[in-house]
Amino acid sequence: MKKLSTMILYKLKEIISGSPRRQLLKMMPKRSVCAEIGVWKGEFSREILKIVKPSELHLIDPWKYQTDFGKRLYGGAYAREQQDMDAIYSGVVSIFKDNKNVVIHREFSDHAAAAFINNYFDWIYIDGNHYYEFVKRDLELFYPKVKKGGFITGDDYLWTSPELKGDLPIKRAVDEFMVKYSNVRIRVMRTQFVIEKILP
Ligand SMILES: C[S@@+](CC[C@H](N)C(=O)[O-])C[C@H]1O[C@@H](n2cnc3c(N)ncnc32)[C@H](O)[C@@H]1O
Prior knowledge:
The chain has one domain (2-6, 17-197): Vaccinia Virus protein VP39 (Rossmann fold, 3-Layer(aba) Sandwich). It is α/β, with parallel strands linked by helices. Helix content is 39%, strand content 20%. The structure holds S-adenosylmethionine (SAM). The site of S-adenosylmethionine (SAM) has 19 residues, from β1 and α2.
């Protein structure tokens, strides 16, 4: 029952936030090199393929059951053990098996970042661990990996959870990032943020 309600909530979120996400994808350069951090079942990855037609799409997710995050899909709210995450991973592998431009990295985002040279991506989409330190780290680690003129984008800008007592960790991390760097500008479209690395 709990699994079902979590699924329904997740689907509802997809429907509600579907339009700004699609709007974001329409803003991204066609045939670009991109990455999605936090892939889950690959539903948004399919949208990326359909709308952006990237030359390379890197899918980054450890598909790890993480008990430290019991309220999240990958820590107990949906997956109940590692086998569930393994099954989700296998599903993603199967969905994209014929897409030569899709590279799957079964890794935490901080490890995956180290594998890419600077200025590698035209754009990235951050939708992994939503807690403050993780979002801050994703922004910092992937910032040099995105070309000037490229985009650091992500989901759930206004996300929170009852245990956070009103904190908006993604907004906090993104807003601090915007203060720290001067060569960036941001556009927020409801749930979605798009940070552009401005050309000098
Ligand atoms: C909200 S889901 C992603 C949803 C997906 N982007 C979509 O729209 O269909 C979050 C995902 O982040 C992954 N994740 C959790 N911690 C992570 C980390 N440190 N690095 C990368 N991915 C992480 C989880 O395994 C989970 O699949």
